[in-house]
Give the backbone structure.
Amino acid sequence: MTVAGKIAPEHPAEVRRPAPRPGFRDRLARWDVKVSPYLYVAPFFIVFGIVGLFPLLYTAYVSLFHWKAGDDDPDFIGLDNFKELFADAQFWHALENTVSIFLLSSVPQLIIAVGLAALLTTGIRGATGWRVGVLLPYAASLVALGIIFANLFGPKYGLVNGLLQTVGLSPVDWQANRLASHVAIAIMVNWRWTGYNALIVLAAMQAIPRELHEAALIDGAGPARRFRHITLPLLKPTLIFVTITSTIGGLQIFTEPKLFDAMPGSNNGGSTHQFQTVTLYLYQTAFENFDLGYASAIAWLLFLIIVLIALVNYLLTGRLARTPGRKK
Amino acid sequence: MTALTGNPRALAGRLGKPRKATYWVLAVFVLGSLFPFYWSFLVASRDNGMLTERVPPLLPGGNFFANAARVFDTVPFWKALANSVIVSGTVTLTTVLFSSLAGFAFAKLRFRGRNGLFVFIVVTLAVPTQLGIIPLFIAMSKLGWAGGLQAVIVPNLVTAFGVFWMRQYTVDAVPHELIEAARVDGCSMIRIFWNVCLPAVRPAAAILAMFTFMMSWNDFLWPLVVLDVGNPTVQVALEKLQSGYYVDYSLVLAGTTLAAIPILIVFLLLGRQIVAGIMQGAVKG
């Protein structure tokens, strides 16, 4: 198994000796080979145990209690938190908001990303420069972005409303109106992630064999038809990958709605919670109302929802990956 | 429809010729990407009066340094900067080191349970750590770490993504023969890692370092939960600038501009490699 065992002894005499006691150095070397791998992978498992596994299990434990922050003796209440949660209109409202913002951001984002990738793959001059430019928003901090966009979409003096009025449209109250607030937050999300996704799609596009396009061209297929019948089908696995990652991110969206509030520092997600997401509600419950038990129940329900959606995505991916056509 | 000869050069021309419009669309997109940064600088370099004007001015004013100075008066911004550098620097170093070590073990060493452990790591990629903030907060409070930088650093010492990324790269980058030769020469494992493996995986480690630094610098939720106002990271300090009844946008946006400068410089210097890293990750992943 290990190389150390296969090394031929330097002195043949050693072979004849019945049972040579391994020297200290040999034993050390053998021990080194055996133990080192575990030492090298250990940091991950220790850290994951502390910040991943333990919290997940402990969250489940806390969710069974009426547990106020700072409370030394929380009451065990079984599944009452979950019962309450299922009847909690604010939670379902927040879930609706989350899904709405997620759809408003992911769908246009993917379409624009594919379009951008198609433009970037045409052999333009200065390709790297354009790619860096497209990726630039990815470097921005969400907090800075949240603040900047809250300012741009401000109801009274915001630049966006100013522009709308200049072209003769009526201003929109981006923070008060539920759908408008979702659109504004989705624009924020899209602004940051579209370029990133475009690069991932671009990478997949460049892996498509050129001969396929050439063959189609000879058969007389124009750019639009080639895109529809060659590029898109071969991009499917990548598109699904991008969808999964943006789903997991989208369901946890927090920073953007938190900073979008007209009352800075508030966790309400607007005066009637019109853009409060589940993670924001979770944060509010835990760190504003200090109701850790109930917040833990929210965390677990959200976790189950994410797992469920990821599973559906996974099954879908598995099915699509099995379809022939993509050469790895 | 059009008859084409089999001339490869003609074909290449037909397939890969960008039109003028392509450049225009891309230029508009990139300008759109830059605009919020520019707007933030614009407001930061003027005073709040500009925001009430119907047609806002398009050129920066001269108040940026005055506004920036007010940022330093309002929140402990130097401390926040120092904290962010400490947190991001430490997290980047440990993540790269531990991920490379684990990647080396998973890619090149044989040990019982190797495959199972690696599959486990890949699965944990799907566990959203955000959802564990409540027990983590309780644990940090009990340890007496809440409010301290170690509470932000320790949970981020190494990531599943990092291990996965380094393993993928190490598999191809380090030849088995080299490791065996080093072992025959009597090298210890750690020396093989340090002298043989690490130099070979430097490009991947560099990309991982850049990503980790950017993520850590921009991290918000957990530092907001666990740090307090007197000892913030840059992102937490920014949020504190904005909280209050009256938002002084020149002040707040001066803060966001200041906070964006370091990361923008890093990005513009290393953008090429970051782009390459994303494209490489997309194909491999």
User: Anything to note?
Assistant: Chain B touches chain A through 109 residues (CB under 8 Å). The CA atoms of residues 220 and 235 of chain B lie 6 Å apart. Residues 249-284 of chain B form the longest helix (36 residues). The radius of gyration of chain B is 25 Å.
